[in-house]
Each structure stands twice: as C-alpha cells, then as structure tokens.
Amino acid sequence: MNDHSFFTIGMTAPNLMVVCLDAPVGAGEPGRLYSCYSTEPLKFEDENQLLLLMEQVMDSINFPQSSASLRNYGAKEQPQKHEKPPKVMEQRELLNFRGSVGTYAIRVQYRQNATWQGEILWLEQNMVRSFSSELEMLKLMDNMR
To answer: Minimal CA–CA distance to 99: which of 30, 14, 11?
Structure first.
C-alpha cells in the first residue's frame, strides 16, 4: 500500500476503523470491527449491527460530532457526560487485521443530515472511494470486492 492511500483516508483520524469481513455483507456470518480504543474486535452479524457499533465508537469519542440527535419521547433525561476511552492502539496498527473476504479502513468525516460522509479504503486492492451516506458505504463494501 502506498503512502498516498494513507494520506487520502486520513490515517491519523481518531475515528479510523477497520472492518474485516469473513463472509459477504448480508450473509449472516460474523465480521469484526477494530478501532484504536480496544484491543479486542467488536463482532457483528449483519450490516445493522456494524452500523450501530460504528456509531457507538464515534459517540464514545464524540468524533465526528453528530449534527442530529435521536428523539426520545419518554421522560426527558439529562445528557450524560461520557469520558473518552483511552487509545490503546495506533491507527496504523489497525491495518494488520484482515478479513478472509475483504478488509476496509473507514473514516467518517462528518455525521450530517442523519447519515455519514467519509472515505473507505479497500485494503487488499488499495482502492479509495468517498461515500455520502451509510447505505452508500455498505454498497461500496459490497461492490469493491
């Protein structure tokens, strides 16, 4: 992989995540999500779980900040202050993990209009693409293979 891809995908971004697919997206087989805030992978069974886990990572570090918040029609709760988890791994170390079907480094640059915008790098082919929604990101993961 050349340094151009590292620069393009933003290797120093605090929210850089690596998705390791061991089966095609939607096959019901588990995949793994890595971030520099945990030495253990976050395992997911489908696209919904993947998106929820990625959202949780970004919420835990408050980066990028979300421009929208989910509505709650129940009792009004006071916003809770979450302490940012400590970084336990460098972003470049995340690139050592591999999936048997595909491996993707993902950087979400913005969380606007109730979706994500960012870049995805297919590590096996050194192919970078931009996405303007969570759905487009998932479609790119499926089509890049």
So the answer is: 30
Q: Identify the burial level of 26 via C-beta atoms within 10 angstroms of its C-beta, where 0-12 means exposed, 13-18 middle and 19 or more buried.
A: exposed
Q: What is the pLDDT of residues 114-127, one digit of tens each?
A: 999 999 999 999 99
Assign 127 to helix, strand or coil: strand
Residue 74: Cβ within 10 Å count:
5
pTM: predicted TM-score of the whole model, two decimal places: 0.84
In the structure, what pLDDT confidence band is assigned to residue 44 with cuts at 50, 70 and 90? Answer: very high
Q: Buried b vs exposed e over 93-128: b needs ≥16 C-beta within 10 Å?
A: ebbebebebbbbbbbbeebeeebbbbbbbbbeeeeb
| Strand ranges inside 36-112, DSSP E | 42-44, 102-112
CA 21, 133, 64, 83: dihedral to nearest 10 degrees? -60
Distance CA 46, CA 30 (A): 7
Q: How confident is the model at residue 145 (pLDDT cuts 50, 70, 90)?
A: confident
The total number of residues written for the chain in this structure: 145
